[in-house]
Amino acid sequence: MSSPVLQKTSSLIVDSIAKQGYAVIEQFLSREAIQALAKQAKDLQSTGEMHQATTGIAKIETLSIRGDFIRWIEATQASDAEQVYLAAMSDLQLAINQAFFLGLFELESHFAIYPAGAGYQKHLDQFIGKEERKVSCILYLNDHWKSESGGQLRMYLDKKDESNFIDINPQGGTLVVFLSSDFLHEVLPAKSERISVTGWFRTRGTSV
Ligand code: OGA
Ligand code: MN
Fold it and tell me: How is domain 4-202 classified at the architecture level of CATH?
C-alpha cells in the first residue's frame, strides 16, 4: 500500500513530465532509505560484486564512453533497502501508466558507482531499433554533494541546441525522471566517488 506522500510525489512527477518531458524531485526517499541503499552499493563494491558497465561495443572503447561500475537489482532477491526503492518505483510506474498509457510494465534497475574521474559521455538511453526503454529514472545516493565536486547530470533540453542544458547535482535523495527517447544527457566527471541507482521503465520485446 503506498503512502500519501509517495502518491503526491508521483503526481508531481507526472505533471512535470506532461509539461516538460522530465522531472527533478528532491528527497524522493527518506534519508535513512538513501543511506541504506548507499551502504549496500558500497558493500557490493567491496565484495567485488559490482562490475564494469558495458555498452555493447569493445571494452576499450566502452571505457572511454563510461567509467561506472554497476550491479543489477533483482526483485526476487531484493534486500530491505532495495524493497523500499522498488515499492516507491512501483507507485511511480502506476501513476505514469495511468497518465500516459505508455504500457510500462517492468522496471530494470542497477546500482552505479562512478570512481573519481569517471563520467559517461553524451548519449540517449534508447538505441535505434531498440526502444523498450521508455522512461529513465536516476536516484542519487550521495550525502552532502558539493557542486565543486562535479559529477552533475547534464541534460540537454533541445536535441538541436547544444547550449540548452541543465546540470543536476547528484545529491542524495534527488530523483530525475525523463522520457528516454527525448533527452540526450551525460555524466560530468566527478572529483569523488558518485553513487546512484538507475532505473528504466520498459516494455518487453522490440515493439514500440
Ligand atoms: C545512465 C545514465 C546518469 C546519471 O546510466 O544511462 O545516464 O546521472 N546515468 O547517473
Ligand atoms: Mn543514460
Answer: Sandwich (2.60)
